[in-house]
Structures are given as C-alpha cells and as structure tokens.
Design a protein that fits this description.
about 120 residues; Glutaredoxin; four-stranded mixed β-sheet; about 15% strand; alpha+beta
Length: about 120
C-alpha cells in the first residue's frame, strides 16, 4: 500500500513540475536532446522550424535526461510523441502539427504574436 501511495505522489510531483515549466515560460519545447545536439530527426526539425520563425526565447527540456518527465509529458498533454511544443501554457502539438503550421505560416504568426505580447 505504501509503494502505491509513493508512486501516486511521484506522478503528482512530475505533473507539478511540468505545469510549472509550461506556465513560467512563454515557449517550451520538450524534445529528445538539446537544440545544439538533437537526438532524433523530429526534434531537430522542431528546432529548425522555431529558428526559422526567428524565435530566440525558447525553454527546452531534454526528455532523455529524465524518464519520469519523458513519460509524464505524454500524459500531461495526452499526446503520445515527442517533441511537444507549448506556447503560453497551451499545448500546440508535435512535429507534424508544427510542420503543418509552419508551412501555412500559422506557426510564425502564433510565435510572433507571443513574442510581441511580452
């Protein structure tokens, strides 16, 4: 019984960390690796799209450094894949959604609008 309670507390702590990260940063990208050294093609693509939108103030979280964050972000967003983009605390999508938004110009509008509102 005690182990189950501990697990629930751990899950709640991870959710609290994730909530804090997306609320305290205007733009957050959960990715595999770092912007300088992405560890998967989708994360590399996400970084390239953000750079192409001239976004400089992006908080990135390398999910490979923490298994609980890696699994927790999937539950937090109810989205099964990484990378994941958040803007103003709102889940925007993964690499595929980002690509669609980038190609239509909506990603730059969203990010440009967020940058101007600060």
């Amino acid at each position: 019984m005690g182990a189950k309670h501990y697990l629930v507390r751990e899950i709640m702590e991870v959710k609290a960390i994730l909530k804090k990260q997306v609320e305290e940063n205007t733009i957050v990208l959960y990715m595999k690796g770092t912007p300088e050294s992405p560890m998967c093609g989708f994360s590399a693509s996400a970084v390239q799209m953000l750079e192409a939108c001239d976004v400089e103030d992006v908080a990135t979280v390398n999910v490979l450094e923490n298994h609980d964050i890696r699994e927790g972000i999937k539950e937090f967003s109810n989205w099964p894949t990484i990378p994941q983009l958040y803007v103003n605390g709102e889940f925007i999508g993964g690499a595929d959604i980002m690509r669609e938004m980038f190609q239509s110009g909506d990603l730059k509008k969203l990010l440009g609008g967020e940058a101007e509102s600060q």
